[in-house]
Amino acid sequence: MLSIEAIIALIISNGFWISLLVLFLNWYEKFEKLVSLVSRAFSFMKKAERATVAWGIQAEIDGLRRSIESEAGDVLPYGIRIEWVQQTSPDAFIKGNQCIILLNHHRNQATNLVYAAVAYVAKSLLPHARQYLDPVILRSGDLTVTKKIVRDNKDALECFNSEIVEPAIASEPGLRNYCTIMEGLDDRGLFSRVMLRELHDLGESLYPKFGSKAVADETRSFVEAMERMASKERGIDAFPDFLGAQIRTSLVLLGRKGVIAQHGISPYLAWIKKCLENKVRTIYILASGENVEGAKVLSKWLINNEKVEKMSDQDYKIRFDDTVLPATCIGFRVKEEQAGDSKSTRVGTESVEHHTQSYGLVSDLLKTPASCLEDVLRHQHVLP
């Protein structure tokens, strides 16, 4: 058996290295294949890890997309696919019905989620309406939707706030106010169900025309009007409609305690009649707490009006004064041939009044409490 000294002497001798070189040259091809197999194994593991990260991000964003779609319609029309690249700045493009995100992989998955979400929303949210929106409305809308994607991930939310939101607000001082407005609308269930839906419809009606300052200013005024309605205190009157050149909508707010109990739905029918005469294009019936039942009854009554068609009916929860309340938002669209014809809309509302008068209901029925009204209407065959 060779001693340690003899082994060391052999290693440092020229003959050892020459023998090793000959062996390597003779077995080079097999050695190369072995290295290739090991490299492929590590590469596969790396690709599998990145594929898992991509799938997780895509699932997060797709989940939010489906949720908003159920509330606002087709405001995020594209799916998402992530492709890992070496470039430092995220990029995105549309291919078919998918938004392709080109993203440089980061070891922190929360960072990957944030930058993928930012790129996706900037390319996919309201694609036909973006060119018509006021820049601060567009940017704050993007940030609000992106925050909805990342807010349940603590690390991602911190990254989003520090790396995306704060720099954006520092460069655009008015942005914080509109982000706060939209967050308040979201808390009350109106951000997607009313605001995004109306901006989507604006884009669909104007695309592919060029944008203008007048239209952009109107979108800002619309968001501000929405904020006034959403933040008003109970019992305080506000103007629940917006009558712009492009956006013409009204909110029927069943919010003052006791109105339905004392007066039935007569005040709300009168308001809807006024809306139709003012050529609104959409009407949203909104209620929370004890007034949800009255909103459902009012909605069923409005369905009988041939001048409008129901486009959405959603129940959800809101927080009001630290109390979680049931809420509802029921949207109606005025049919196109009626929206521009005040005479025909007037006839339409009068036909509803005549229909109720034919059953002798106007004096008593319109003052019936909501808890009893639906049964009365059904008994008189006004409701199915």
Descriptive key words:
single chain, alpha/beta, Translation Initiation Factor IF3, 8 strands, disordered C terminus
Give a description of the structure.
- This protein has 16 helices and 8 strands.
- The protein has 384 residues and is an alpha/beta fold.
- It has 2 domains: 54-231; 234-379, Translation Initiation Factor IF3 (2-Layer Sandwich), CATH 3.30.110.
- A hairpin with a 4-residue loop joins strand 4 and strand 5.
- It is elongated.
- The termini are far apart.
The helical percent reads 55-70%
The averaged pLDDT comes out at 80
* Sheet with most strands: strand arrangement: 4-5-6-8-7
Q: What would you call the shape?
A: elongated
* Low-pLDDT residue spans: 342-384
Number of strands: 8
Query: What is the tally of helical segments?
Result: 16
The tally of domains stands at 2
Let me know the largest β-sheet. Answer: 5 strands, mixed
Rg over alpha carbons:
31 Å
Beta-strand level of the residues, as a percent range? 15-25%
Structural class: alpha/beta
Distance between the termini: 103 Å
Short structural summary:
The protein has 384 residues and is of the alpha/beta class. The chain has helices at 4-11, 14-26, 28-72, 109-124, 135-150, 154-171, 175-187, 191-206, 213-231, 259-263, 266-277, 292-303, 336-339, 342-357, 362-365, 370-379; strands at 79-84, 91-95, 98-103, 241-243, 248-254, 282-288, 308-320, 323-334. The strands form 2 sheets. A 5-stranded mixed β-sheet has the order 4-5-6-8-7, with helices on both faces.
Secondary-structure topology with pairs:
Layout: H1 4-11, H2 14-26, H3 28-72, E1 79-84, E2 91-95, E3 98-103, H4 109-124, H5 135-150, H6 154-171, H7 175-187, H8 191-206, H9 213-231, E4 241-243, E5 248-254, H10 259-263, H11 266-277, E6 282-288, H12 292-303, E7 308-320, E8 323-334, H13 336-339, H14 342-357, H15 362-365, H16 370-379
Parallel strand pairs: 1-3, 5-6
Antiparallel strand pairs: 2-3, 4-5, 6-8, 7-8
Helix pairs in contact: 3-4, 4-5, 4-6, 5-7, 7-9
